[in-house]
Amino acid sequence: MADEFVVQLEEVSAGFNTSAVVEGVSFKVKRGTVAAIAGGNGAGKSTLLKTIARLIPPVKGKILVEGNDVSGWPLPLLAKKIAYVPQDISTSRDLSVEEMIALGRSPHQKWWQWRSDQKDRLALENAINATELGELRDKSVSEISGGEKQRTAIAMSLAQEPEILLLDEPTAHLDFKHQKSLLQLLLKLKAEGMTIITCLHDLNFISQVCDQVLCLKKTNRAPSVQLFAGPPREVLTRENLQSAFETDLRIIQDSSDNFNSVFFGL
Amino acid sequence: MTSAAHSRPNMTLRLVLLTGALLAGLLMSVCIGDVFIAPKEALQLIMGGTSNLAAPGIADILTQIRLPRTLIATAVGAALAVSGYILQALSRNPLADPYLTGVSSGAGLAVAASIIIGLDFSLMPASAFLGGLAAALLVAQMARRAGGLSVTRLILGGVAISAVCGSLITLIITQSGGAPQAQGIIFWLAGGIAGRGWSDLTSLSVYTAGGIIATLLLSKQIRVLTLGDETAQALGVDVSRLQWILLSCAVLMCGAAVAASGLVAFVGLIAPNLARMLFIRDERMEIIASALIGAVLVTVSDLAARTLGQGQELPLGTLLSLVGGPFFLYLISTSKSEEV
Question: Is the distance from CB of B69 to CB of B223 less than 8 angstroms?
């Protein structure tokens, strides 16, 4: 089936204006799966994610969404299909958590429209429930913690009701409890058919939640390249990681959980 | 129910009170002057009736001088206030205003040049718009950085542009060889509405009303824009197009105001900040409140300018700077932003 792959990258170079930060990435993501973009600092993970989100145009290559070239799509139409959660979100205004999440409905509303209809309210409630933000809904965004802000940002993207969710380092501000609930949330969304692509540093998180991982590697004085791609259990090997991060890491394969654990191996 | 919804009746009451303040200011402005007109007579005359109480000539003073002047002051205040509101939203900083960002000065230079070459007054707003836009673009270019505008650079750029425009205006005046127009520029520069009539009000009110309506329609998008350019775009907002439209609205309103009243500082700074203090969390209410507060501020200041001076009018711009300067200092001292 042609649209089995929801997102397809064909020889994509990503960067700003004409200078590529990452080049030659080819990668396909199936519907209802979770894919990770991994790699060392400065390897261009976020740049590639932003390019998939169409926040910056690709320097070269093609990005297909459900088999379509979306470069000419109107932005609100694209925003109904793809939601993007930045690493840090803030607002220069004193908004409540609920008001911020409600902005996720913007692509579904007319540009001048403030009033929300029943569908908007339902999507808002679902987003708040999924991220367990019910108790914080009336709090000001400026008063909540980094982790709560992250969850608010994810809730806002869920209110968009997208088919594809792009997350930039979603675990960055989360403690263990909230990392676990994020992991559970991502698995639940995946079960509901959501396609998720996320930049992640945490290799253990990747091996527990992702169906495949794309690893980028910075090269000397040149754009980063695609080092390997595939299911975590197959590609998160000692040799691959050594090449990606230029340091020795230990891998423990857990047969019962069916995923690899990565240790520093000191 | 959100906290914003809780306080809605309260916000409506505040808007009603502000509207009342404006109406009171308007009435005072048409009644008080060298000749005092009783409020009852004034209202009768304004309503189109002829007052049998009014002495001859009073009707002319009211309808030909005071009423247009008062309405121009109101429109100038509203235009500058909403212009400031937009510039603050665009720069994501409460310290931006048409005067500080150089927009007013750019418009001022264009108007000064127009006066010297004898351009018709009806074309002044357009000329002021072009001058203001050129200044705004220059300053925005200087202040641009990844993720938005740097406020420090915005204001420093604004100061530089203002200085250059000020010098050029001085050059125009000194090199005009004592042309009578030079006197007009000096008079107009100080900021004042004396001598303006109904014809000036027409273009000003069209620009102001259009700008305020457009800003109200864009208020939802303005809120999305507070999340940052990238997030706003991910939510389906064409950020650069929105910024262009908003900047054009701000410059258009500011240009029209400058053409009518010269350089009137700080209204665009004070009014939106007071409005935000009163109407937290609702952009539409804030925009309307900004316009009302700006209108009250300029109407009352203009009244003060023409009545407090000993036999001579005080410059409106100077009066407002006396209030605005300290307010600006207050905002800086209470600002949570690390940059300013």
Answer: no
Residue A225 structural domain: 2-88+162-263
Using only C-alpha atoms, chain A has a radius of gyration, in whole angstroms, of 19
**How many CB atoms are located within 10 Å of the residue A234 CB?**
12
d(CA B102, CA B85): 15
Classified by CATH at the fold level, domain B73-334 comes out as: ABC transporter involved in vitamin B12 uptake, BtuC (1.10.3470)
Boundaries of every domain in chain B: 73-334
- Which residues face A96 on adjacent strands? A140
Q: Tell me whether residue A246 is in a domain.
A: yes
Q: A96 with B5: CB under 8 angstroms?
A: no
Per the CB < 8 Å rule, is B228 touching A86?
A: yes
| Domains: count for chain A | 1
Between A and B, how many residue pairs show a Cβ–Cβ distance under 8 A? 81
Residue B114: CB atoms within 10 A of its CB come to 22
What gap in Å lies between CA B56 and CA B58, rounded to an integer? 6
ipTM of the complex: 0.91
Query: pLDDT confidence of B4, banded at 50, 70, 90?
Result: very low
Record: contact B237-A138, CB cut-off 8 A? no
- The predicted-structure confidence for B13-48, as pLDDT tens digits, reads as follows 889 999 999 999 999 999 998 888 888 888 888 887
Closest CA to B264 of B111, B109, B98: B98
Residue A202, domain CATH: 3.40.50.300
Residue A109 lies in a domain: no
Give the model's confidence band at A246: pLDDT under 50 very low, under 70 low, under 90 confident, else very high: confident
* Residue spans of beta strands (DSSP E) within chain B: 144-145, 148-149
Whether the predicted model's global pTM rises above the 0.80 cut: yes
Partner residue opposite A75 with nearest CB, options B3, B4, B237: B237
Separation between Cα atoms, residue A1 and residue B288, nearest integer Å: 54
